[in-house]
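Page 47, continued from p. 46.
Same chain as before, 198 aa.
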Amino acid sequence: MNRTAVIDRKTTETHITIRLDLDGRGEQTIATGMPFLDHMLAQVARHGHFDLSVEATGDLAVDFHHTVEDLGIALGEAVSQALGDKAGIVRYGAARVPMDDALASVVVDLSGRPFLVFQAPQLKGGRVGDFDLDLVREFFQGLTNHLRANLHVQVEYGQNLHHMAEAIFKALGRALDRATGLDPRLSGVVPSTKGSLA
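Result:
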């Protein structure tokens, strides 16, 4: 089964190309113009065991917002495209990841219904270098809407902002790895009593 996707998203504000292989080895090549976000997306790929290539240009001189949001949108579209009709997948995934002082959890249901719960008040108004951490939620909102998933994100505690954000992205990778995984008991079967996860 070929569970790959290529997304080329172009607007007047951004141009994003994503290549994704859900059944990869965690290899990544990421260039968004935002080094901190490059580092975060690399965590998703590495800990989700996805092969991920991301090339993004955007109006970063105006603000990082458009590019961050559109990256979430494009990644959501890529995962959704790679999953196809979702037959045989586990569907649910959860991960709780520590990073030194910080602990974060991500729980996902690839239900076809977008809903985001984002509980990370510690990040509000924070910055890592020139990256506004309020944009982490914007990334997850775009991802949720276009992956069409229930996504629950929580920073349970922490002191270092970088550690808290990184724990979130690592947990996302591990939760998605679980949810997108194939269950041999469900070969050809969509994991829903409705018969569809659209």
